[in-house]
Amino acid sequence: MNHQDIENRLRETGVVPVVTIRNATDAPALGAALAAGGLPIAEITFRTDAAAEAIAQLRRYTPEVLVGAGTVLDVPTLQAAQRAGAVFAVAPGLNPEVVDAGRELGLPVIPGVSSPTDIEAALARDITLVKFFPAEAAGGLAFLKAVSAPYAGVSFMPTGGITPANLSDYLAQPFVAACGGSWIATEKAIAEQRFDDIAAAARTARALAAPFRSTHPTVTRAPLETRSA
Ligand SMILES: O=C(O)C(=O)C[C@H](O)[C@H](O)COP(=O)(O)O
């Protein structure tokens, strides 16, 4: 899958559960819960030792779930994510080495941005889908509306402080591809094996995102070098 395929899938689901998992054996039930709730996608953060194995388990037992790696701060983590089977990688910031390695490995990287300078660093590498992190703390929708003017054509995945209460406000903006958040599958709910609660939270998020999905047409962009001025 290339960046465009990933963006299209993000726009289809509207919400990306950000997951921190301590025990990889919980991954199949987690994947099943997300799929049952209508959100067959997950960003598994490399904040625990179980991340790579959890990604591998998701790929094996719930192949319908699109699995990405989160908290990818360096190239070895990116390589580990790809070996485990992640089909995209997300980072809280923009590490040029990670972005460049992603291109070499054929693994789409969604770097984190929180300033115009960051956005330009992404554009300089032909990346037009970025994570906006930490969304609420870094200016929220007001920031996105302001930067969407000079940076038309950039799609954002706001993450950090997104909840069912503010999700719709973000998704109503065409430059928001999807929102990420940990509220759907919290570390606590997974540890306590409350997979029905996770499926219910996924279902609620899916329902909140549903009205906006149709306003997000499939985007097809020419690579930067072929775009006319
Ligand atoms: O781990 C990463 O790569 C991150 O960038 C951080 C997470 O995306 C946020 O911690 C999720 O934010 P909340 O939904 O507010 O909990």
TrEMBL record:
InterPro entries registered for this protein in UniProt: Aldlse_KDPG_KHG (IPR000887), Aldolase_TIM (IPR013785), KDPG/KHG_AS_1 (IPR031337)
The reaction(s) this protein catalyses: 2-dehydro-3-deoxy-6-phospho-D-gluconate = D-glyceraldehyde 3-phosphate + pyruvate
Single GO term (MF): 2-dehydro-3-deoxy-phosphogluconate aldolase activity
Keywords for this protein: Carbohydrate metabolism, Lyase
Entry-linked CDD domains: KDPG_aldolase
Pathway(s) of this molecule: Carbohydrate acid metabolism; 2-dehydro-3-deoxy-D-gluconate degradation; D-glyceraldehyde 3-phosphate and pyruvate from 2-dehydro-3-deoxy-D-gluconate: step 2/2
Coiled-coil residue windows: none
Protein's UniProt keywords contain Ubl conjugation: no
Pfam families in UniProt: Aldolase
Top-level enzyme category: lyase
Enzyme nomenclature, EC number: 4.1.2.14
Homology family: Belongs to the KHG/KDPG aldolase family.
Subunit structure: Homotrimer.
Protein name as it appears in the record: 2-dehydro-3-deoxy-phosphogluconate aldolase
Organism, as annotated: Nakamurella multipartita (strain ATCC 700099 / DSM 44233 / CIP 104796 / JCM 9543 / NBRC 105858 / Y-104) (Microsphaera multipartita)
